[in-house]
Specification:
The structure is a homodimer. Chain A is of the alpha/beta class. In chain A, 40% of the residues lie in helices and 21% in strands. The first copy, chain A, is flat.
Chain lengths: 709, 709
């Protein structure tokens, strides 16, 4: 289970803060990667020593070159390897001999090109293990440390980014070039910027761990094309409560997207909805695209966390104010209601025609003084948790003066201030003034509202209560016996009685039932159990009993039971001639109640997952379902339930009494315990669980368990 | 009803193509609106005569000024009035005397400042009517005609936009400045650009009608803060099948947003979901924000309409290809499956490591030749309906050469080609090459996919089948009698028996029922009707019968009916002491079936609206509801039903037989007829309508009608 966990030392200090670097494979041909790498390090302002290594050249860009790494007469912290893939192992071996503890392998031509490349990659791995070398890559763009203390661009990216507090980790090198260009244009600074490529050694979770403890990094951005290390991610972020915002963009949400990602990265990924759930559990904010990721990142990194969700909107144009209002509400924000003091100041400072209510409309001829009056009073109002300042370039608008004014006000604010200067070239200078000061700017007011909402979600995550995983007293050995019986036989699908017995042993509410082999026996059992009863086919070959007429409900007397038994057998035999029929279950009829579904599935990356949602026959149609990775805490359970419409139904609406929610919560926690106890359970479905009024309990109507064999 | 329809002549020729213009109120003070307007017209390249009118100046910017309009010795087509609002009426009166047939009133200080301004605006209206003058404004930015034949900037916008095929109509002047700036930056050209302000005379529907017939306009964009003229819009677009794409951005989606819009525009708006439905019926594409509006507009205007939804993606970076795939699927597109020919060409032209399947990954070192091979073969593949070309700025990427190549390929393409060059300053030149050639460019591949999907929706709208409004034989006079009885009494809420009678007279399936005044009578009625029966309180003071215990169902004998009657009376009296009880309805018990809700409501702007959705007690929780403006065609009915999850349930899933959908459709059409026949019906709810299997009919279980009094 722990095969993915990297137990080797991670020499991050040598990767990010090397005192000396060898560029192994440097050349003199401009426009090639080996040359770009060397000149990038030279030009970036790196204060340490740089040694080019090149078997064919005496000097590289004027610097003395060494034939082999081992020829360098000085100590070397980091090797950046840019040789063709076929000779990388050789070069790395020499790095080991030279006691270099870290390497960035830029070269492509490894795992991503097939079995032959995989072999070369395995050689790197073996050498790294032998000499305890930490490796980034291969097949990556490289590493940038924008910390002004070192200014290291060990990548073939065209430009060095500005220094800032955002750490960026990317599985894709190609995307990095676009991201760096995008960020430079908007003065979005980075602390560290890493393209980790094929991750033969250091992986995204290792890097995440490093950035969590890196003082220069306030926010971490993660671009992934597959989540291969779900369990490591959970282990890292559960053990180390995440105070820094982590934003993730994961490509491959749809099945076509996942297929495209697989053909691109060659790696399998788990289900996207499980990834979504895990991110929520871990407080990772998921972005829909690159723009949204940076939109959120600048707000989270460069502005204070808001106390709550009450936004104030200030604008010189009514329309965008209305649009921002819509976007605020749609993203779960509230329009702040100003204090009497603020109202008084706004009324006094703004012209009669201005709207002093939120959204504050300063009117088209507003200049910096009106923005000043509005923003200053709002920033001091305790009823306001943050502000959005909108500008359109009208003929009277002194755009740059307003931008400078915003910078001044922002300096003294203790709540977030986001801006949207709408337009094109007219507003460019104003926007640059803001961006240079790291005041978050958004082309659309709507995007600003979305990002404000992201900061509110992060705040809620930070202040959510502690919650523990509960451990129930269960009959584990009884469940184990049943499961081992099936595994011994190589059978994956449990009969319903056995499934119910496992659930019974884990404390779930099950109905009274017996298995009849004959119609006569069914009739006699039904009398014992008490009318009305339900009949259900018991056969491991039948997965959807109702679909083939394998269920009869509400049978009120022996005659109906006898008839029902025969109908079921006839139906099943007619539709599944080869079905192995174990008998017919005669079960106590459950009273009608509210129906939910709950279950377990296994995610290839995150492991056991608990599922909850609206139950019944139409579960696939309605798809009102939430997931959480096990083990789940009480808080996880509450959050996952509230994601579904089912929760409102259970809470009792329109005169309905609330249902026994406490019991449902406990059932989900018991499911989580069962999932953790038995990794052999591949899939478990309880559908429906019928729930009665508060304190009146619940009943499992139907359950399925599939084992992994 | 027709008070909103503007029957006056509309002198659009004089507004958009005047041969001579008087600028009434021009001044010499730079930086003021009156001066800006004059110099804008002068500088824009307008080839006609311009006469400044200024009581206080002999010349304006060097041109001879006239004291009054009537002093101009030449004929004048258009007056642009920039006087303070207090003297505008006087100026307009003189325009009338001078026989000027069109005026743009830029000045603010009218309706938007309150009753005094409203009075001034009414004066304008009266003069316009007297002299048959068409007016744009007041309180607007003005009018721009970018047609190269005239090049008229009769606005105080800082810059003249480029010529293009997009017509833009805006309720907000302030937003226009941002839009013009935004569009100029991206080389998005306009045909006509109008800020229509307070619309004292010419309104948005008039302008829409003009642009629909304007040869220079291919696509129409509409920014609105309220829909006041829903009925006119329907009349225009139903009578004149809309071949041009119309995109609308309507601010005020949420209740807070609507409140903000009202305080801003001073006008009431209908419900946003009705607006949404009407837009769908009329083929108007609704945009979420300014960016989305222009994103869609450039695809719809400057590219051919795609045959269908099969997109091909070409990229030099895997990650963005995956993201574009996700976005394609999420927006209802399909990834095209290439023909054998295309596959062959791609395999031959691309390196071995490239992915020749869709999304095509040309690999990071791709130069223009690879893009050429991929785009050319794809453009000839009949399995492809359109292409998205993605670029990231990698070290080998010849960005500008690729942009030029795209321009060349696009010229010969008969299907849409959209592009996304990702990054910042590195890709700027490439993007500009594309934009100058009107090849749609998107900062995000995801946005390109959304816009491609918008063109597919438009194509589907264009090719949707003809459909008519059916007229059923109904007993209209019986319904009229009942409605008039209530209106005569000033009563708005119909008793259930009366509501059912109206529905009966319109051919709806209702259950057998009688009204009992006593328990004994109820028992005897129930025997006549046949057991089991349902009992329901009949009282115009009780709106939600179940909520107060006013319903008993499934009563199987006289004893249960007698008891039920008493319980209902007790419950109602206990909870609503002053309820006026008309009796208890004894009704045939409907068999269980699938439950839907349908009804009528009135929208202040669009008029009668038909509603359909999932029925039952939880209708407000689930909110699975669709609307259409009446009268509705068979196609409208099918489309509205398919918007709900209810439709899938009715179609029969997981072994269920399909329900009597044909009857449901007919019921909705009958509702539409009822809504059109009786504008007095303010609200009608049938909840639930229980539907049985195909051919087996349906039953109304409960119905409410409220009249407008």
């Amino acid at each position: 289970m722990c095969s993915n966990i990297n137990m080797k030392t991670k020499n991050f200090e040598q990767i990010f803060y090397p005192t000396s670097i060898a560029v192994v494979g440097a050349t003199n041909t401009p426009g090639t990667v080996p040359n770009d790498i060397f000149t990038n390090i030279m030009r970036s302002g790196y204060p340490g020593s740089i040694y080019p290594v090149s078997p064919g050249h005496a000097t590289i860009s004027g610097a003395k070159a060494y034939k082999y790494v081992v020829d360098i007469p000085y100590p070397v912290d980091l090797a950046v390897i840019v040789f063709p893939s076929s000779v990388c192992a050789l070069a790395l071996e020499q790095c080991g001999q030279k006691r270099i503890k870290a390497a960035i392998v830029i070269s492509a031509g490894f795992k991503e090109i097939g079995p032959k490349g995989k072999e070369l990659e395995d050689q790197l791995k073996a050498i790294a293990d032998k000499y305890d070398i930490s490796i980034i890559g291969p097949n990556c763009l490289g590493v940038i440390n924008a910390d002004s203390a070192i200014q290291l661009n060990a990548s073939f990216a065209r430009k060095m980014p500005e220094e800032g507090a955002i750490g960026f980790l990317s599985q894709s090198g190609a995307l990095c070039t676009a991201v760096l260009d995008y960020a430079l244009n908007k003065h979005i600074g980075f602390s560290k910027f890493v393209s980790f490529g094929n991750k033969v050694d250091i992986n995204e979770v290792d890097l995440l761990q490093y950035l969590l403890s890196d003082k220069k990094t306030k926010t971490i951005l993660l671009y992934l094309e597959e989540i291969g290390l779900g369990k490591n991610l959970i282990q890292l972020l559960k053990g180390n409560p995440n105070k820094k915002p982590i934003l993730a963009l994961k490509a491959g949400r749809t099945s076509d997207g996942i297929a495209a990602a697989q053909s691109h990265t060659g790696s399998l990924s788990g289900s996207d909805e499980v990834c979504d759930a895990a991110f929520k559990q871990l407080g990772i904010i998921r972005a829909k695209n690159i723009e949204e990721m940076f939109n959120h990142a600048i707000a989270l990194t460069y502005q204070p966390v808001p106390k709550s969700n009450r936004i104030a909107i200030v604008t010189n144009a009514g329309g965008p104010g209305v649009m921002a209002t819509d976007a605020s509400i749609e993203n779960g924000l509230e329009l702040a209601k100003f204090s009497p003091d603020t109202n008084k100041i706004l009324k006094k400072s703004l012209p009669r025609m201005a709207n002093t209510k939120n959204p504050v409309d300063l009117i088209g001829d507003a200049r910096a003084d009106r923005y000043d009056a509005a923003l200053t009073s709002i920033s001091r109002d305790d009823n306001v948790d943050g502000a959005l300042c909108i500008l359109t370039p009208q003929s009277m608008t002194d755009i740059e003066a307003i931008a400078h004014l915003i910078c001044r006000v922002e300096k003294e604010m203790t709540k977030p201030l986001l801006c949207s200067f709408m337009g094109g070239s007219d507003v460019l200078n104003g926007i640059e003034i803001l961006q240079k000061r790291h005041i978050p700017h958004y082309a659309l007011p709507e995007s600003a509202c979305q990002s404000f909402a992201a900061t509110v979600r992060h705040k809620r995550w930070l202040s959510r209560p502690q919650s523990k995983v509960r451990n129930f007293k269960v009959n584990r050995s009884r469940a184990k016996e049943i499961i081992e019986k099936y595994l011994g036989r190589g059978q994956s699908y449990l009969s319903e009685p056995d499934a119910l017995e496992i659930l019974d042993s884990y404390g779930f509410p099950i109905l009274n039932y017996k298995i009849a082999k004959t119609a006569k026996q069914a009739a006699s059992f039904s009398e014992e159990i008490g009318f009305p009863v339900a009949l259900k086919i018991s056969s491991s070959s039948v997965l959807h009993k109702s679909d083939i007429g394998g269920v009869r409900i509400n049978l009120k007397n022996k005659k109906e039971v006898t008839q029902g038994f025969k109908q079921i057998i006839d139906n099943v035999q007619a539709q599944k001639r080869d079905a192995q029929i174990l008998g017919v279950i005669v079960e106590e009829m459950a009273l009608p109640g509210k129906e939910v579904i709950m279950g377990i599935k296994r995610d290839p990356s995150f492991g056991p997952v608990v599922m909850f949602g609206s139950g019944g026959v139409y579960v696939e149609l309605i798809r009102d379902i939430a997931f959480r990775v096990a083990p789940i805490t009480e808080l996880d359970v509450q959050e996952m339930m509230k994601e579904t419409r089912s929760y409102v139904l259970l809470s009792g609406i329109r005169g309905d009494r609330p249902a026994d929610i406490v019991l449902v919560e406990e059932c989900l926690e018991r499911l989580s315990q069962l999932a953790m106890d038995f990794p052999q359970i591949n899939e478990l479905d309880i559908n429906p669980l019928v729930i009665y009024a508060k304190g009146k309990g619940a009943n499992i109507i139907d359950a399925k368990i599939m084992l992994k064999i």
